[in-house]
Amino acid sequence: MANTPNTELKGGLKSRHLTMMSIAGVIGAALFVGSGKQIALAGPAVILAYIGGGLLVILAMRMLGEMAVAQPDTGSFSTYADRAIGRWAGFTIGWLYWYFWALLMGWEAYVAGQILHGWFPMVPAWGYGLLVTVSLIVVNFLNVRNYGEFEFWFALIKVVAIVIFLIMGSLALVHVWPWGNANGWSHLTSQGFMPNGPKAVVVALLGVMFAFIGAEIVTVAAAESANPGREIIKTTRSVVWRICLFYVGSIFIVVCLVPYNAPALTDPTHGTYNVALDALGIPHAQLIVNFIVLTSVCSCFNSALYTASRMLYSLSKRGDAHHIMQITGRDTGTPYVGVLISSVFAFVAVWMMATSKMDVYDVLMQATGTIALFVYLAIACSQLRMRQRLQAQGVELKFKMWLFPWLTYLVIVCIIAALVTMVLEGTYRNEVLYTAILAAVIVTMGIVAQWRGIGTRRDEPANIEGSARLSENSA
Predict the structure, then answer these.
(1) What are the helix and strand counts (H, E) for the chain?
(2) Which residues contact 415 (CB under 8 A, 6 or more apart)?
(3) b/e map 409-439, b = 16+ CB within 10 Å
(4) 3-state secondary structure of 13
(5) Backbone phi, then psi, for 419, in 5-degree steps?
(6) 190 exposed, middle or buried (CB, 10 Å; 0-12, 13-18, 19+)?
(7) Which of 117, 276, 279, 367 has its CA 20 to 30 A from that of 79?
(8) What count of other Cβ atoms lies within 10 Å of the Cβ of residue 306?
(9) Rounded distance, CA 394 to CA 388, Å?
(10) What does R_g of the chain's alpha carbons equal in angstroms?
């Protein structure tokens, strides 16, 4: 018995950790740099695209919150898809989600390496990428409380930066800001609110959807807190104002202060916030934005490694991954094997940086393009079936999806329509096709696993009703 490996998570995340993680979950480099591409595409009407994408995330998070309050689990929506739809569904969405975050870590290491090399060129970019990778692996080897602390401070820097930007931008909108040449609302309508037509807004909406993935991480992390039900309810309710304030609010200020066709918006060496800060007359804007982006990519890497390792842990508990991935440290309770395996793509990216082969990594990244939509679709279908079962059992849920089942059906229809539009329109056709091929391969593997009956279900509750009642009382 003394040699039996430990397979239990210890937890330790505090309420303030989860609060800051939920706030920063949707704030990444896509906001600070990548949003310029969407602004150039749709013009000021890109605000509508961000509102539409944000609304989809809000509804998906409400559905996920309903299930997570009833059954907190480190596998989150993967576990719910397993229980509500079938083992193949939980297997597929769990491995797709792991692939997304594991692959994204390599890209974040690349971006961090490029920024640090630009500041201190005496070390090659791949050396900095390796340093960031190893450092954050060490963080994730420690107790989850240490991960929460690192993520809290990483997130705080991003949040403070956005709040300061919102204040400065708001002052400029009312002609109070004393520096720069950006004042008032002129660029919102001076060249037309929708200069490239409604089709451009739809295409931008499809691109915007990718920026929001990460909000669901808090339902994974909440399972390692003292009161998962309460924390999930609080953070899920706050997702509305987070998206409105940080994404829609900041993009609104940018399109008011900067012409949508400014060449620097689509220049990868500048980015959205850099252009806006230049317009506000802020000195050293490039350095400031690079520091914020570096913090964001380190935060994203940190969260990605945490999330990927917990997804492997959950898959292993359900028999859908090798049992070694659920082994945890006796003192830390961290699934250190899952952490190491999840970091494999980061080391691959470092090797490609050193050998100038990152263009190959770009092809791999295309297969993650629509995983966010697949995740939201799985959440909606799982919530639909799980609620129907709970209603049939007469279970009262403490936290519910609005206007069930009509809003759930609406989300399912919108996601399917978005995927079809992406194929027909063409801009994101490769992303849809590559992700679909990857999903088909994993679905096949999941069906084979289900057919062969591989694995056990030691973590699954005896029935949904009992689990729901237990979590309702604890929440």
Answers:
(1) 22, 0
(2) 56, 373, 376, 377, 380
(3) eebbebbeebbebbeeeeebeebbbbbbebb
(4) strand
(5) -65, -40
(6) exposed
(7) 367
(8) 29
(9) 10
(10) 22
Phi, psi angle pair for 12, to nearest 5°: 130, 0
What three-state secondary structure class fits 133?
Answer: helix
445: tokens are 């593997």
Angle between helices 371-393 and 46-70 (to 10 degrees): 40
Instruction: Provide the β-strand partners of residue 265.
Output: none
Q: Domains in the chain, please, with CATH?
A: 15-453 (1.20.1740.10)
pLDDT score recorded for residue 137: 94
Task: Extract the tokens encoding 323.
Answer: 């049992």
Helix ranges (DSSP H) in 180-283: 186-189, 197-209, 217-221, 228-242, 250-257, 272-279
Q: How many CB atoms lie within 10 A of CB 406?
A: 10
Nearest to residue 381, comparing CAs of 166, 2, 41, 80? 80
User: What pLDDT sits at residue 382?
Assistant: 95
Amino acid at 343: S
Apex 147 CA angle, 126 and 240, nearest 5:
100
Q: Which residues of the chain have pLDDT under 50?
A: 1-2, 455-475
Q: What are the structure tokens assigned to 251, written together?
A: 């993009």
What are the angstrom distances between the C-alpha of 322 and each of 15, 80, 98, 134, 224? 32, 20, 14, 24, 22
Helical packing angle, 406-425 and 429-452, nearest 10°: 120
- CA 109 – CA 126 distance, rounded (Å): 8
CB atoms within 10 A of CB 460: 16
304-352 pLDDT per residue, tens: 898 899 999 999 988 888 889 988 888 888 899 999 999 999 999 999 9
Q: Note whether 188 and 169 are within 8 A (CB).
A: no
Alpha helices in 71-86 (DSSP H): 77-84
Report the sign of the C-alpha dihedral through residues 170, 34, 301, 286, in that order.
Answer: negative
DSSP readout, 292-334? HHHHHHHHHHHHHHHHHHHHHHHHHHTTSS-GGGG---TTT--
